[in-house]
Amino acid sequence: MEAKTRFRLAICGGGIGGLTLAAVIHKYYKDDIQVDLYEAKDKFSEIGAGISLWRGPWSIMQLLGLDKALEGIIAGPPEETPRVRFSFRRGDQVDESYTFHEAIMTHGPITMHRTDMLNILVDNLPSNFRTHFNKRLSSYSEDSSGAINLFFSDGSCAEADVLVGADGINSATRKAMYLSLENAAESEDSKHLASFAEARWTGTYAYRTIVDTKLLLEKAPGHRLASTPVIYLGKDKHIVSFPISRGQSLNLIGFVTVAEGEGAEHEGPFVKEVAVDEMIENYNSTWEPEIRQLMSVQCVKRSSRWAIHHVRNLPQYASGRVVLMGDAAHGMTTHLGAGAAQAIEDAFILGRILAHERTNVENIEAALKVYDNVRRPIANAMVERSWNTGLLYEFSVAPGGGSWSGVEPSSAEGLRMIAGGIDDAWSWQSSDLPQDDWLRAEEQLLRHICSQASTDGGAIVTDN
Ligand SMILES: Cc1cc2nc3c(=O)[nH]c(=O)nc-3n(C[C@H](O)[C@H](O)[C@H](O)COP(=O)(O)OP(=O)(O)OC[C@H]3O[C@@H](n4cnc5c(N)ncnc54)[C@H](O)[C@@H]3O)c2cc1C
User: N or C: which end of the chain has fewer CB within 10 A?
Assistant: First the structure.
């Protein structure tokens, strides 16, 4: 007998977050949700760059049965032994620098090419989930029956019972949600809600490129970056490099922060192909010899420039039957390599709540509040932690976000303090597993469902 459809779900955005959500629902549901996935582009695609996963998201990939496929594309096997995962050097000095800190982590990073990861998620999409390309959501409205009307930029419309905005940092879902929340707000205190509609520029550009390791070693035999993940720190600039594609390439990102840029409106596209010279000239003459060598041996063939934006302290991820996840909810700086990890953890909790056999159109709003209650404090805190880590790498704040109180950040004492701050910042990757968060979410969900069954409309009890 065919299962009765509990609700119609629209997922807007087929990036890592939206596709992982589809995988979680497929794994845990009983064929009783109608799923439509709307993607703005003409196919699922990612930019050509690396990505790191950690223990938490990796454990989700294991639960989804995707770990075996991923093992074929990662730079090295996942390990659970304390090991140096990143070396830290001061980069912005002309003379040879030294490694002032080695961050020892028990887990990860598990690094891979983003396109390879996306392809595995796409291959896993079940055939009964309908995918719609060239469908860019422009807005939505909720009608009196509770149904959501989706409006696309090509003039077409669709209807769903639940809308998940997995549409990235420039989320149209978030814009529509927060403009509508402000319009509906009665108190003066809520009249600032529209300010959450847009992501804010952090003032930082990230120049991303992939370097062919073989070519690097031909041109610069024994170069440190061929085998070692390194973060080079400097005033208002830093560089991150780590091997991907089983060590055949390096993911190289050069960060440059513009004075007065934070919070300013960024002019021009978020992502732009740029001449490699624009990246190289930031580091070429004033950085330590191994960086100058890397930049001068024509290993950097092409580069894109990303204006790094973030979405800070969103006061709610869910409104009515609409919910945000991934970068749409908490787009963050890249300094802890945690954005995709957080999107995957959102997908796990949200997907399990939606797939839960007792979630239905009557209790969906409360169910989405459970997701908000469990995920928002964790992900919002990560946005702040990640931003502060970037400021620390660029000597702008002392560990903990405070001032340097007379200590020169690039001095031996300053670097010792930074080393402590780095260990603290990265300790998140061995924190609770998402399965623990799911236990909390399920307990809240069931508590709500039981109280609703006994009172027919009991309010959800939250932990915070
Ligand atoms: C330079 C850089 C380096 C990074 N490195 C790491 C890392 O090492 N580790 C890590 O965990 N994270 C990293 N991140 C962050 C990570 O890329 C993001 O957090 C992650 O991709 C978020 O996934 P998402 O699915 O929420 O959004 P996205 O990946 O942005 O996907 C959104 C999808 O929605 C589609 N879309 C957009 N608008 C609409 C619309 N209106 N209607 C329909 N579809 C729409 C898009 O086409 C896209 O397919 C990095 C980010 C940057 C910028």
Answer: N
- Angle 344-434-109 from CA coordinates, rounded to 5°: 65
Domain chopping of the chain, boundaries: 7-42+133-198+311-392+432-455, 90-107+200-310, 397-427
Query: In the numeric block, which tokens belong to residue 119?
Result: 């392809």
Is the distance from the beta carbon of residue 163 to the nearest atom of ligand 1 less than 6 Å?
Answer: no
Mutation to probe ligand 1, out of 240, 327, 345, 387 (largest number of atoms < 8 A from CB): 327
State the chain's mean pLDDT as an integer.
Answer: 91
For residue 459, what are its two tokens?
């309010």
Q: Is 168 in the pocket of ligand 1 (CB under 6 A)?
A: yes
Task: Decide whether 7-42+133-198+311-392+432-455 matches 90-107+200-310 in CATH topology.
Answer: no
CB 332 within 8 A of CB 390: no
Query: In this structure, which CATH number among 3.30.1370, 2.60.40, 3.30.9, 3.30.70 belongs to the domain 90-107+200-310?
Result: 3.30.9
75 Cα: distance to centroid of ligand 1 (angstroms): 21
For the CA of 19, the nearest atom of ligand 1: 25
What is the rounded distance in angstroms from the CA atom of residue 379 to the CA atom of residue 329? 9
Query: Residue 48's pLDDT band (boundaries 50, 70, 90)?
Result: low
Q: What is the pLDDT of residues 273-327, one digit of tens each?
A: 999 889 998 987 889 999 998 888 777 778 899 999 999 999 999 999 999 999 9
Question: How do residues 217-242 score in pLDDT, each as one tens digit?
Answer: 998 999 999 999 999 999 999 999 98
Cis amide leading into 109 (omega within 30): yes
Q: What is d(CA 341, CA 332) in angstroms, rounded to the nearest whole number? A: 11
Give me the CATH code for the 7-42+133-198+311-392+432-455 domain, please. Answer: 3.50.50.60
